[in-house]
Amino acid sequence: MLRFLPFLLVVAALTGCSHEDGARGPSTPALVAPHPFPAASAEVPPGHREVLCPDLRGDGTGMTIRLVVPQQATSSHREGNGCAFTLRSDPRRALSVQIDPDESLARWRETYLDPYVSDDGDDAVGDVTYRSDVPGLDGSTAEELRWYSFSDGSPTRVVSLLAAGIRLSWSVPDGEPLPATALDLVRRSVAVLAGTRASCPDRGGSGHRSLTFAPPKDVGWVEGEAGRCRIYVDGSLTTLEGGEVDPAPSGIDALAARVRRDPEATGIRLERGVATISGERADRLSWEVVRAEETENYEPAGTWRIVVVQSASARVRWGATPAWWRDHGAVFDRLVESVDVSPGRPSRS
């Protein structure tokens, strides 16, 4: 399962839930292997932006889902074979997409809903309905599963669609209607692309740049944070490890000045014009952080090397131990090489 902690579909799957049984559909449909296909609508409607959701598994499909999401999506999480977006800063309002799921919605229901039938309690689920004949993707029909979850006092309504190897889900607080028109708009925007690319928004300024990059696989997960994309390393005990792609960076001279004021920073080196990002000349700033003992915030002792490559349009940063740089430094080089920056449509990110 993905680490979509705010997203209630995963909570339901992990905890096991109970429900009031709804109408059953026909026999379990066979899963379809994902494959590249175009969107039914390639437009980016007003109030939406285009996003890319790559399969980050090293042994995954090697594909990326393209779709549009509402501009009100305030955060994003990309991990494994899926992505989730929180809407209007409310974790009950969420949109998620997954490529190559392990099982059909009919089987998912049998596994995670049917064994736990109940009408009350913190984990109560009800109003479960299932169909296998709704509009889907790439000209196919889709499975559709709907249910209500009490979710420890945060009642939520959820709808999931599964077709062409893609699962698309939307949740809202109980009492709000599930947004059928909005969900259909997102469904029609879904395309599957060959290769693995992620998008990173630039919400500020008038340029509305569009930045895409290829996140390292089997490293961790990617979070959209304040207009930047942060790459987290699974199992890391320090914020110094991992990377960041920023389509609207502040000046590298200002960053170098901040680093020089850091008492833990040593070996600071700023090199002009020694790299490129998306064909644009870039500078490189590097330094080491040497920490003798654990901090009051429980950051561990150790030594880490930080490297920043920055052009006028983008910044790419990575931090890791000297041993990691010796063995895996090419991971950072490939990340920098993968960044593509181009002027985008105002609704694109």
UniProtKB/TrEMBL annotation:
It comes from the Bacteria. This is Lipoprotein.
